Structure formats: structure tokens, C-alpha cells
Amino acid sequence: MIQATPVIVATYAEIALKGRNRTVFMRKLINNMRTALKGLPVADIRHVESRLLISLSEPEAATEVAARLKQVFGLQWISPAVPLPRGDIETAALAAVAADREPGLEEVCEAACALAAAHRGEARHFKVATRRSDRSFVLGSPDINRIVGAAVHQATGLPGRMHAPDLVINVLVLKDEVLVFCAKEKAYGGLPAGSSGRVMVLLSGGIDSPVAAWLMMRRGCRPDFVHFFSGRTAAEADTDKIRRLAAGLKPFSPLPLRLHLVPVVPYEMRAMGAVPDSYDMVMFRRFMFKAAARLARANKCRALVSGDSLGQVASQTIFNLGAVAPDIRLPVFRPLIGMDKQEIIAWSREIGLFETSILPYRDCCSIRSPKPVLTARPRDLLRYSGAMDLDAAVREACDAATRLDIG
Ligand code: ATP
Ligand code: MG
Questions:
Q1: How many folded domains does the chain comprise?
Q2: Does residue 354 form part of some domain?
Q3: How far apart are CA 193 and CA 34, in angstroms?
Q4: Atom 10 in ligand 1: which residue has the minimum CA distance?
Q5: Does the C-beta of 110 come closer than 6 Å to ligand 1?
Q6: Are residues 289 and 141 in the same domain?
Q7: Residues 99-118 pLDDT 10s
Q8: What is the CATH number of the domain that holds 314?
Q9: pLDDT at 165 over 80
Q10: Which of 5, 36, 55, 128 could be joined to 80 by an S-S link, Cβ 3.0–4.6 Å?
Q11: pTM of the model
Q12: Which residues surround ligand 2, an ion (CB under 5 A)?
């Protein structure tokens, strides 16, 4: 009788392209997997012939282990598999060949038939796809496909089909084992958390900026979050929603996350009378970016991240995006810049943040002047910055920031 699924096979994509740094990326990836799987019955994680094999000590944990692995950036596909010892299979096959019989590959066929029965659903046709990562195996891939395919056909009645079949049963021949698997869950790809350095994410209470954060995390960045609140204290501003958004990103991070809460009062006090209404929105965004840059430097972050999408609102015209912070030397990443709102919403749902993002919240951006300039000139921004002493407002706000640990 075939055991249930005590191994999970995971593949990685982009790391394979890394030349000399590959071992560093691999080590990070495996460490991150261990952190994500903490508390689950995992016996070991092995890097075998361009795949990661996760052995479970309790087969029932397979679903939970696969779900956690999906949150580990750098992985591409995740498949619960049935592992079979290659030695026994090969000895039997060699004996058959010596006796001039067709090898039966009984264990492989049994596993393949059990998987086909479990996964066939509405499938109308199937194929067996064999890969021999170790080519010294006594049979070639076409032979294995034929022998196992015949067994599956006999057991299920399904016809085989080479092109775009509904069901694919994979047989992977490694040096010491043969893995048989069916379900392949796509993971998110990207680079291992912590491999690209730290960034400071401007996190508002909306849909966009958490998605922007997630996309940069997927590229291996470790985020700190900064949120600007109106009101005298963070408690008064009720930033619970912001904390929940940051906490929602935590499952994707093996490292603790930090949220900086910064009051906007210092900006408002100084801008009053010094900044015309039409420039208030852009000047306020300038204040946010300069304060975020200051916090970034203090926290070893090498770039800023914001959730801007070109043309989505008045503050996100080409002119206003360009004018906001010409004097900030840190790179500003805007991973949503070319995305439609519908695409951003789809990501927000996919990563499980949408419901939190649409909870009511009074963002300090939503209370700014309703008619902002669409073509702010950097020259004017610099003039108003001098008039209100923006640098002093930035200093005061950062000095009054509170830092919270998330998870
Ligand atoms: P979101 O859905 O992320 O709130 P938005 O479409 O509402 O974005 P804006 O309010 O113009 O757009 O904000 C654009 C970006 O500026 C946000 O994605 C975020 O990165 C940053 N931002 C806006 N308000 C704040 C805030 N209160 N604190 C920190 N960052 C902010
Ligand atoms: Mg917003």
C-alpha cells in the first residue's frame, strides 16, 4: 500500500540564474523555508538535483506545509509527492530486462494510479510525464511513460493525450528516489526575503500601498513601514487598521517587521499661511517623502516604496510625481506605476489584504485640499518648502514618531 504524501517537492526559478551568488541565495531560501515551517512536523529539507525536497514526519501536515511554503518567496512550484526508494524499483526492472520481460514498475504504477484516482475530478484525458534527473536509470523516459501510462489507463479508463491533457502525472527519477506527483501549486516566485536589502514603505490605509509593499517583498526586500496620521497621538488617530495591514504582510516575512507612526501635525502647523491650498496636497506628499527618507536613513533602509499608480488621482500625475521630491537621493520604487486599479485589487485579494484595506479609515491624504494643482513646478515647491521650513517640520515629525514591532 502506498503511503500518503510524506514529501513535498518545491522548485525555484530565478535563483537558478544566479551565477556565483547562487549558494548565498539558496542558503537564504532554505533558512526562510525553515522559519516558515517552524512548529510543523518537518523532518528535513534537502536540496537534491535542482529541487528542494521537504520530508514530513506526519503525512497529514502536507496541506499546511504546502500552504506555508506558498508564502516563501523564491519558490516557483510546490507539489506533494509520493517518494519511492529507487534501489528496489531498479533491481526489479534490471531483473525483468535480464529475463527478457518488460519491467512492470509496480510501485510506480501503484502510486500513479492512486494519484490519478484522487485527482482525476472531471479530467477527460491524461499523460504521464517522466523526467530523469539521473539518466543512469535502466529505462528511458518514453519507456517509463508507456509502462506507467498503460497502468493508469487500465485503472481509470481515461485515454492518454500528449497535447494539453487535463491530468498530468509526473514521475521524477532522482539518484536515490523516484517521486510521483500530480498536483502542482504555483507559488509566487521572486527572490528570497532578505536578499535585496531594506526598504522604507509608505503605508497608507488603502488598497494600493500594501500591494506595493508585497511586490517589493517578493523581490527580496525587507520592509519597514511608515504611516503618517492626523491627530495628536497615534492612539487618538486609531491606527489599528494600519497595524492590521502590516500584520497581514507578516506571513510573507521570516524577519520581524516594524511600523513607524509619524504625526502630521508639525507639517500642518507650519504649512498654515505659508502654502497655498492648491499646493497643499503636493507639499504634503513632499513632507511624507522627506520624512520617510529621514527615517529610512536612520533605519538602514536604502530605498523608499510607495503605492502610486500613474494618473490614478491628482497627486499621481507625471508632473506631480516628478515634482514631489527632486532633492531625495534615495531611489523611490513605485511597483504599481503601470497597473490598473483592477489588477491592484486582484493582487490585494490574492494576498488576503483586501478585506482589511476596505475597512473605513480617515487617511490624512483624504482631508487635504480638494483641488490640487495637476502640474506642480519643482521651483515652486522649493520656494514653499523654504517659506514653511519644511525641514524643521520633517525633523519635528520624525522626533515624535513611535515605533511598533509587528509579529
Ligand atoms: P492607497 O490605496 O495605498 O492609499 P491611494 O490611491 O489612496 O493609495 P494616495 O492617497 O494618493 O493614493 O497615496 C499614494 C501613496 O502615497 C500611497 O500608496 C502611499 O504609498 C503613500 N501614502 C499616502 N498616504 C499615506 C499615509 N498616510 N502614510 C504613509 N503613506 C501614505
Ligand atoms: Mg491613500
A1: 2
A2: yes
A3: 13
A4: 365
A5: no
A6: no
A7: 999 999 999 999 999 999 99
A8: 3.40.50.620
A9: yes
A10: 5
A11: 0.93
A12: 204, 206, 363
